[in-house]
């Protein structure tokens, strides 16, 4: 069935980043479809998240079968495997997903993600490091 609710978001990869992202979006009231290729990860998060399915996101046919193309936004939260991340973004591009967000672990990784069709690229580790640095400095100023 085609989802007409554009608040739905697909999260691919339930590592540390992906599971927090999926949990926060769920708390914010969004319908979340979480996808991971590991049956253990799927099992682990199935109690906390509404919809968790096992699939290899590099397989366009598998994504199509899950109805991923009906969601307006998809986040590729895979980090360690550049190959899996890039091939997943490529599959989503081929499906015509309107808003593809992807996690990069390096500048080169980010360039490849953009070149295969990612609309938004985020760097969770770099962004968190930067934010915490500012937090530490601002807290230090409080005590001067
Ligand atoms: P984090 O830092 O968020 O914990 P990580 O870098 O340690 O992530 P990754 O290798 O990025 O770990 O994997 C994150 C999740 O993505 C894992 O649960 C893994 O099973 C899943 N994953 C990896 N490849 C695919 C794929 N092709 N399809 C679906 N899920 C995948």
Automatic annotation (TrEMBL):
Residue ranges of every copy of the RCK N-terminal domain listed in the record: 6-122
Record-level Gene Ontology MF annotations: monoatomic cation transmembrane transporter activity
Any single biological process term in GO: potassium ion transport
Protein name, UniProt field: Trk system potassium uptake protein TrkA
Source organism per UniProt: Micromonospora coxensis
Entire protein: shown range: 3 to 146 of 222
């Amino acid at each position: 069935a085609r989802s007409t609710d554009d608040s739905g978001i697909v999260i691919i990869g339930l590592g540390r980043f992906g599971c927090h992202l999926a949990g926060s979006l769920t708390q914010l009231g969004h319908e979340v479809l979480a996808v991971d290729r590991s049956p253990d990860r799927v099992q682990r998060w199935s109690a906390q998240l509404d919809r968790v399915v096992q699939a290899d996101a590099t397989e366009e046919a598998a994504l199509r079968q899950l109805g991923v193309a009906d969601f307006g936004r998809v986040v590729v939260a895979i980090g360690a495997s550049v190959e899996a991340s890039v091939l997943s973004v490529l599959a989503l591009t081929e499906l015509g997903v309107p808003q593809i967000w992807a996690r990069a672990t390096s500048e080169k990784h980010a360039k490849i993600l953009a070149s295969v069709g990612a609309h938004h690229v985020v760097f969770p580790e770099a962004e968190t490091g930067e934010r915490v640095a500012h937090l530490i400095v601002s807290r230090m100023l409080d005590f001067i």
